[in-house]
Amino acid sequence: MTVAKVLKTEKARGSVLKEPTTRPYRRIPAYLIRRLQMISAAVMAEAFEDEDMPLLEWAVLTIIDNHPDIDQSRLAEIVSIDKTNTGRLVDQLEAKGLVERLPDGSDRRVWMLRCTALGLKTRKRLLPRALDAQQELLSCLKPAQRELFIDLMSQVVFANEKYIRPGAGRRKPKFAAEHQQRTGTA
Q1: d(Cα 167, Cα 148) in Å, to the nearest integer?
Q2: pLDDT tens for residues 11-36?
Q3: In a 10 Å sphere around its CB, with 0-12 CB exposed, 13-18 middle and 19+ buried, how is residue 48 labelled?
Q4: How many CB atoms neighbour CB 1 within 10 A?
Q5: What are the residue boundaries of the structural domains of the chain, listed by start?
Q6: Which of 9, 2, 42, 1 is CA-nearest to residue 140?
């Protein structure tokens, strides 16, 4: 059974909110945000399951479509993926003929990214699936609640953007922590 079918079934039964919420961890934002991210990724993956379009490639293609002639460093920043992995994703999209790299006229070291005609056609074809998946994800909320939910999420994200960086939240390598401890640098 797909995630979308489970959500519809649970909603139809009225049991979406019947899960006991008295457990303390069920009220911890980090726990809920992580769970919601996992659910969102699964819903989007199901929407594209018959396509050769992993979620991160879709995210990169979406940003390139919305920011034509973006450079790869800025793309990495917007998508919040390190530059090396962003480069790999662009390589994969380029190999599929969905994006192209064009030299920057003012800096030969910089490549500008743009969707190809096939990339634009693919975005146009897949966009309704992506939007439907997002609507399905939020279908347990009334329309006004959806808007409020998105507004509140945006407020939390914007207020905490200083923490958005590749690798944020990962443990530092043991040798680096030990070095910092020995040298007194942090």
Answers
A1: 30
A2: 555 545 555 556 888 889 999 999 99
A3: middle
A4: 7
A5: 3-140, 141-186
A6: 9
* String of DSSP letters for 26-81: GG-HHHHHHHHHHHHHHHHHHHTTTSS--HHHHHHHHHHHHSTTEEHHHHHHHHT-
Q: What is the pTM of this model?
A: 0.75
Cα–Cα distance for residue pair 175/180, rounded to 1 Å: 9
CATH match of 3-140 with 1.25.10.10: no
Please name the amino acid found at residue 48: F
Do 7 and 42 form a contact (C-beta atoms < 8 A)? no
Instruction: Evaluate whether 56 touches 149 at the Cβ level (below 8 Å).
Output: no
> For residue range 32-66, what is the model confidence (pLDDT) as tens digits?
999 999 999 999 999 999 999 999 999 999 999 99
Is residue 40 a contact partner of residue 55, using CB atoms and an 8 Å limit?
A: no
Contacts of 90 (CB under 8 A, 6+ apart): 60, 72, 75, 99, 101, 113
Q: What angle do CA 33, 88, 44 make, to 5 degrees?
A: 35
Q: What does the block give as tokens for 129?
A: 């699936």
